[in-house]
Amino acid sequence: MKENFIRALPLVASALGRKYGVSVVIGGQQAFSDDSNIFLPALPLDSPLELVSLARGYLDHEAAHIRETDFALAKSVKLTPLEKHVWNMIEDWRVERLLGERYPGCRQNFVWLIRRFFGQDCHSADPEDDLLSWLLLTLRSWSVPELGARVSELASLVEIRLPGLTARLNSILDVLRNDCPETKDSLKYAYEIIRTLSSYMTESDSGRNSRSDVSQAGQGDSDADSQETASASAAEPSSQPEASGQSSGEHKSSSETPADSGFDRNSQPDQSARPDRAAGSSDPVSIVRSLLNKSADELPVSFDSMMESCLNSARQGRSDDRLAVAQEGPLNFSELTAQDLESVRPTALALKGRLQSLLQTMTLRATRPGCRGKLDTNSLHKLLAGQPKIFRRTGTRTGLDTAVHLLVDISGSMTGMTDLASLAAYSLCEALHSVPGINAAATAFPGKPVQMKGQREPNACTVAPILGHGEPLHRKFSLYPSGGTPLGEAVWRVLQVLSRLRESRKIIIIVTDGVPDSEPNAMAAIEEARRTGIEIYGLGLRNEAVKELLPGSSFVLYSLAELPEKLFRLLETAIKSINQRGGRL
Which CATH architecture has domain 338-363+399-580? Predict the structure, then answer.
């Protein structure tokens, strides 16, 4: 049951991509995004619901950035590591709020993410991290109020180490919460927060220097008194020699203080337990200065990096049975020769004629009773029973309204059979293009590997469109074999294409000669297609392996002459099922 969650991800990603205006790639080596694309790694087919929810939340989060973040502006300004870190916090909250207001489902995903990553205790022994955690959770608590208790706890800790700072920052956050519509505004508030930290450090440093001056002045008076006392002591012998020993002990460490001196160890910070405190970083000036000077590697990881790390680790730690979706790759097709067209013409004509004969029953004009139309005198008695349908309406049944997508295997094992595959694909497309109500297309797999942005290796899971839905028929159907057999990846891609079409019925016909590279991925794609109401049929070329993938809905072709009879038999079953439903699914 849990596998259904991950199997729905390609179609969900396709729908999200259309809705948000972004491109979603599933099957790369790592999770990341750029200005217009979101990349997900190939995830295990047995992924638990939590991992699927994480992937869905990541898609929403990155789509929010692509829709709402002004990347050009962000790249044009030079930010210090801390400025960028604070800006990322604000921008994450801002874009999620905007997308969540428009799409309530996204808001629910964002709430899940916040609880998943920020719902646990984030207290640190480092006061700088506590300050950043307080700032982050304050922003996130506006979406998930239950974080308010943790925000208050962190605020108390920060107040002890940095008195008065949270009050200053809260005055900025209160304005930010109600006035941050664009990226330039989040940058403005990030600058303002950093300026507040800098001024707080300067004021704290000035106050510390003032106290030091006063202390030094007092120390000067104390030294003068000590000198006078020392002179008097030299003139008058001391009657208490122990006093000199006690005075010399004033510069000993606190560990050497007598137990009965009244010194309370628990009232002082445990310097030995925290080396950073022993180094003198516990005062406000040192804390803020250290924070302002942190490098990017020393700052906490961003929210995006947290999610990407979880997704990447899931990819690395699971089995090889992974879900991946093919991308379009470049591939040039040659036109069929005149000899090819001549050899395929009888096949196409035979198939076209039998199809058109079969489809006549789908478009017959029929009469039915209605509330308007031509009066049916034989139905006037219905008025006594209060039935108003005494007229006769004539109409045309809905036609096929069907999208057919031909998926052609051109892997290396197809050597010697690509001529048969090319002619079979062209014959089928020509026949289907002549039938009203059928929207036919053809795709070959694999295409040439493509180097995806941000990926270490070229992506070999590609497809190459031969004929798109709605395009006029052409003759560039001459195919050449190469590469592996990413059948599952190709089916996922076609499912995404079909999900965008409006036809009420959708059919995939697979032309292949053997076993897919990843049988689990291929079976998962086939099962998801059937679950969503898409029919899949198989055409095996001189090999019966397709019958194991599609038992009961496939047949094997050994020569082009067999194509009209066997393909008609397959389509006859599909078309008759439409007629039994009255013309619609």
Answer: 3-Layer(aba) Sandwich (3.40)
